[in-house]
Amino acid sequence: MKNKTVVVALSGGVDSSVAAYILREEGYKVIGLFMKNWHNESVTISNECPWLEDSYHAMLVSQKLKIPFQTIDLSNEYKKRIVDYMFNEYSLGRTPNPDVLCNREIKFDIFLEIALSLGADYIATGHYCMMSEEIIDKKKIYRLLKGRDAKKDQSYFLCQLNQYQLQKTKFPIGNLQKSEVRDIARDNGLITAEKKDSQGLCFIGKVKLPKFLQQQLNAKKGDVIQISSTNDCYHNNMSTLMNQKFNEDFAKPFKYKPSDGKKIGEHNGAHFFTIGQRKGLAIGGSKDPLFIIKTDVNDNIIYVGEGRTHPGLYRKALKVLNSEIHWIRDDKKLTNGQSIQYMTRIRYRQKLTSATLIQKKDFLFIYFKNPQLSVTPGQFVAWYDDNELIGSGIIFE
Q1: What are the catalytic residues?
Q2: 315-394: CATH homologous superfamily?
Q3: How many angstroms separate the CA atoms of 324 and 95, rounded?
Q4: CA-to-CA dists, residue 104 to 109, 139, 206, 389, angstroms
């Protein structure tokens, strides 16, 4: 390892700090690099994740470990690839996942290329996931595996990585429990040992989403329409198809219209809301909480249902357009007409659920064994074979 150099993406948190420590102990030449990404104090809850404090902690960890350190400014790249993408997706009534995009577009693309240009052999992060290698048909395959700490597994956030990126990456803490990581930090006097885990956007922090979106998306008054669970036209019609397994109609978007329910209030813009959202409506008078079951940005209407068991919150299937399908393992790629059963998840920390993947001519059809809560266009669906992440895609409908 003495001749191998690793650039660690130091975030100022305990996980990346311990990752750097482990690699140094293993004999690698370690360099710490902190990424300054887009930051706007008017929309960031600064005391939740101030980048200046994070960069200072990253520097102190580097000094403690006696490794070189520097900060790189990726603000412009982050704004172009992540922030602008988020504005566009929300304007279309879709809900992006900036953390998945940050990994695909920033950490494992721009950051990786910068590290390699500095002469590094690898980059490393503090993600809770693991890798293994195997030879298939005389070709080395890199397998992306779930982290050993089931409560902290972050493989979902890496669902858009490719074989080249995995080849150049190390995940030093993936085989550890979070408690073990903190113990290592304490034992070695790292300032981040007791630091709370960061929340919010990747390397930015917690963001006040409405204020963030209002930078480019104008407020516009619209109606909130409540759909009764006993008079849900869409789902009553769909119930007649329940015995028809793999029927593509299960993946069609909900087609509510105002006459299907009653107006119960107003909102400031359908593009500020997302399917499954419970807070932010400021409408009372219902026995159970109101959940958003459909947003219509064209007519600026929000449709809501009362209670978590409302049928409008659940979907039996979804589609991923061919252009949005990503296989970490190309050797596992489905061809037209092929199908396979995998475990899937449509959001971080969601329990894995069984689903059948069917490759159609123009899209991948994913049919869940059990109806899923809040299937949201723009988010990522990932599929697993046991502990291995095989591929992912952006939910179309």
Answers
A1: 102, 202
A2: Translation factors (2.40.30.10)
A3: 15
A4: 6, 24, 20, 15
